[in-house]
Amino acid sequence: MSTVKTNNIISIQERRMGTIGAYWGQANLLAKAVLEHQAPQRIRTFSQTKLDEIVCALHLLHQITDAAVVVHGANGCSSVKHFLHVFDGRGGGLISSNLSENDSIMGSDRKLGQTIEKAYRLYKPKIIFVVTTPIVAINNDDVQSVVAEFNEELGIPVVPVFTDGFKSRIGANGYDLASHAIASQLILEAEETDKNLVNIIATTEHPSDIEQLAALVSSLNLQPNIFPRFGNLSNFQKSAQAAVSIGIRQESQILGEFLDHERGVPFLHPLPPIGIKATSEWILKLGELFNRKDESAGLIKTQVNRFQKEIDELPLALAGLKVYISGNGAIALSLVNLVQEFGAKIVGLSLFHFNQNDAELIEESYKKNGWDFNLHIAEGQPFEQVNIILRAQPDIYLGELGQAVPVAKLGIPAICYGLLPLYGYAAAINLADKIRLAIQNKSWLERLSSGKSPYSKSWLEKSPNWYIKQEVK
Amino acid sequence: MSPIAAPRNSCVLQGAARTTIAIGGVVPIVHSTAGCALQSYLAGCLASGGQGAGQIGGLTFPATNIIEKHVIFGGSSRLREQIKNTVHVLEGKLYLVISGCAPDLVGDDSEAMTKEIKEQGYPAAYLQASGFLGNAYQGYQMVVKTIIDFVAEQIEKPPGKIKGLVNIFGVVPGQDSFWQGDLMQLSQSFSAVGLAPNPLFGAGQTIENWKKALQGELNLVVSPWGVEIAQYLEEKFGIPYINWLYLPVGVDDIRDLLLEVSKRIELDGRIVEKVAHDADAEFNYFLEQFADAYFNFNFQVEFSAVGPISQVLGVSRFLVNVLGLSPKALVFTDSPPNEPGAAIDKFLAKVTGKPRLLFSEDSKEIFDFLKQEKANLILASALEKDIAAELGSAHLSISFPVGGRIILNRGYSGYTGGLNLMEDVGTAIIRNKMAEFETVTQK
Hints:
The complex is a heterodimer.
Chain A: H1 13-17, E1 23-25, H2 27-35, E2 42-44, H3 53-62, E3 67-72, H4 80-88, E4 93-96, H5 101-106, H6 109-123, E5 127-132, H7 134-138, H8 144-154, E6 158-161, H9 173-186, E7 194-202, H10 207-219, E8 223-228, H11 233-239, E9 242-246, H12 253-263, E10 267-268, H13 276-289, H14 293-306, H15 308-318, E11 322-327, H16 329-341, E12 345-351, H17 356-369, E13 375-377, H18 382-392, E14 396-399, H19 404-408, E15 414-416, H20 425-440, H21 443-448, H22 457-461, E16 468-470
Parallel strand pairs in A: 3-4, 3-5, 5-6, 7-8, 7-9, 9-10, 11-12, 11-14, 12-13, 14-15
Antiparallel strand pairs in A: 1-13, 2-16
Helix pairs in contact in A: 2-17, 3-9, 6-8, 9-12, 13-14, 15-20
Chain B: E1 4-5, H1 12-20, E2 26-31, H2 35-46, H3 68-73, H4 76-89, E3 94-99, H5 101-105, H6 110-119, E4 124-128, H7 136-153, E5 165-169, H8 179-191, E6 196-198, H9 207-213, E7 218-221, H10 227-237, E8 241-243, H11 250-264, H12 269-296, E9 302-307, H13 309-321, E10 326-332, H14 341-349, E11 356-359, H15 363-373, E12 377-380, H16 385-391, E13 394-397, H17 414-441
Helix pairs in contact in B: 1-2, 1-7, 4-6, 7-9, 8-17, 11-12, 11-17, 12-17
């Protein structure tokens, strides 16, 4: 199914990919329903904060090196910039239109113009992205014509990203909106093809992971072209000439499919090179694809040799451990494979959201592993995770940024892999070693878990899906 | 209100949310679109000296995460459902409903929804905190006023005074990255002379402290962002206040402050002098030790400071009056409603070699200003690391955002604050010199 149109409108993930944001129950039932387009959208009648479109879009746009980002809203909508600045590197220029109460009543078109002008003057960018916010969406302020005017006046692309902040329940929809804006406005048709050029669609990966992929591509005598994160306007422009695009994360799909369907660059969306075996398979596949089988086999051999000692010894420490994994679709499932490779066993799984891509993978994983535990779908929502995990009693928990603390407070060893590199041999060994260390010394954990839980006893005794209801239309 | 490059003062909602989680037992319920409470965590906690979510913050934050249908048809019923369920999931002594831009624009009656749960006997209060109404400092003020009204409602007759109880206002959790240390060290300085400080936020502070606050003898305000609250408390409960406006850093400024306090409430000035004398002796002991590094690494430099008025003035006063440094440029980022010109003028009157001033939170404007002024030492935020590097200057974060370091109970106020500042400024200068040294020797 083509997910991309060249116009400015893109439907929300729920409609495009059947994405579900709330569930706790049998995995195969959900997978079947999603694949048959029959899955009802469920809602939470109690919820905790989570990602939204604006945060995700800004994360993607933050590391486009010659772009400036205009956040068209109240100042708080751009606060995440400071988090990105200190956790993700300084990134490009950002400017807020600083909407006031008056603007929210009288309209903000003029303010947007001033902001775009200032962004141009301050940062001399090659692209200006205009990220919209709820105030602008609710007031139906005219963004399109202001943007069109400045497109002409400044002679650089001024690209609107319509993140209303409430259209989709799925925060990751913001990655799609930003990707779609880039695809439809910045990737023009190419006149020629460069058969050595390989697009690496960098989205939510750790920079070292992207570096790894690029090094791998280079080692096969190919030229990597990295974007949107860590890239620039010329990377976007070159991308249509590439022989192939590789996108590992779910968030790369919009750009990958656009290049495939609209610009004739085939899109490879392989399973992530997470874990020893998956990394080897990945390198082999790449070698096959570019007729460089010998090089890739050689590469695997030297790399695996390098880590042989750890590959042999780590399973001794991890064997039989019960693991709970929380994360994003294919990444979480790859982490499953990784810990299983080291001899651990999965006792629970939470995915941020669940779409048609995930459905087959999940069904297969459940079948292959003979899992009978319920599948949990939630962006954040630690109140549900805490409830589930108290029942599952894993030996170790792996979660994304912000997820480890509520679990660790239960006295369960936890690891946050949100800021760890994950791709390749060294990353797999590093993560397995982190598990070993977390299990080995629990003194910190014991102290942390001695504090009071914010959750009521009555909640912890209820079924984890108590507040997940079918939506009444 | 013009456009701002990388604005650092956030919005009312995020300030309110961040402030709320700094009080034990208070459970915020954010009624807004999904990212609002999350951004307050990502910026106000993680990017503020790597601080944590605590009990209720971070992903634990209850939030309605409203979507399109709530914008079109109204989100009041979603809020009602969320409030009703929050009291069952999370235990709290106060449920504070905080509404943001989207529900406020479409006219949700969040107040009525809060009233409903109050009528069911749950402790609850409501705050309209549309982001577009202002910055995080205002969000702080609004939360403080809302909680004061909440505790006041519960008291039947006017409370008596608690002797020596001094409430501290104007230190803004998260938006001031050193808020915990500053409050603790201020409190220690007050305890040392036998007063009973009431910091209201941070370790061990619960709604009980807020109830007690109404029985305060005196309110102390250490930034422009508390004056309104102090005026309100004076009108309503007859509690007088001292408008100190900046953080008292080091022995001298604390002594001055406490002597002022002794004029307002019963406090023996001789005890203040005695404690200050002892603290001074200890300080001088360390000052002597500091002297070697001071001369070895030539600490006597020109500095620029960037941050809210409270921090910039407090820190600058110490650097100038105690350490003998000279101010080159001062940037005040918090633009309070009442321009505190007098305090700034008073500080400047004592300084030889007038520093240039800028009132702005625009990161690019600040960058250009610092670039022009070229000081050897830049006391600012993580956003000014680049310009410090470009100028080859030493950099120390004294204001939000702060990255690359963890701040728990470190602060620059009070007796110990002066020593902390000496350590940190000294370390920043030494690291800078050593880095310079390394670059030269490795060539």
